[in-house]
Amino acid sequence: MENAESFDGKARIRHAVRQRWGAATGRAMNRKLVWIEQERFRGFGCSDCAWVFKSSGAPAGKSFDEMMQNFELQRDREFTLHVCAGHPRGKGTKNKNTE
């Protein structure tokens, strides 16, 4: 008998998404959001690929704390959703801060 959560298909969808992301990203479970300092870039990026966070503008919020929270939520959401295979590194290129 199926539980209530899987009755509407949500559990099956979540399982399929986990399988897809695991297969598509390979090491996605080991990747980390890291601080990167390079000659032409300083900011957050992925430890396993060339993805970097590019903010879509000034963070929204009524206070500094709210702006920081919104910035972090956007950054973390975009990091979680990116697919490493879509951001390959050039040969020999590594994030020096992830070694």
Description:
The chain is an alpha+beta fold and 99 residues long. The chain has 2 domains: 1-28; 31-98, no CATH class. 38% of the residues lie in helices and 10% in strands. The chain is built from 3 helices and 2 strands. It has helices at residues 4-7, 10-25, 64-81; strands spanning 33-37, 42-46. It has a two-stranded antiparallel ribbon. It is globular and about 45 Å long.
Tag the structure with descriptive keywords.
single chain, 99 residues, alpha+beta, 2 domains, two-stranded antiparallel sheet, 38% helix, disordered N terminus
Describe the structure concisely for a colleague:
The protein is an alpha+beta fold. It contains 3 helices and 2 strands.
Count of helix runs: 3
Q: Kindly state the percentage of residues in helix.
A: 25-40%
Largest sheet, strands/sense/barrel: 2 strands, antiparallel
User: Quick one: overall form?
Assistant: globular
Mean pLDDT across the residues is: 75
Number of domains: 2
Topology readout:
Blueprint: H1 4-7, H2 10-25, E1 33-37, E2 42-46, H3 64-81
Antiparallel strand pairs: 1-2
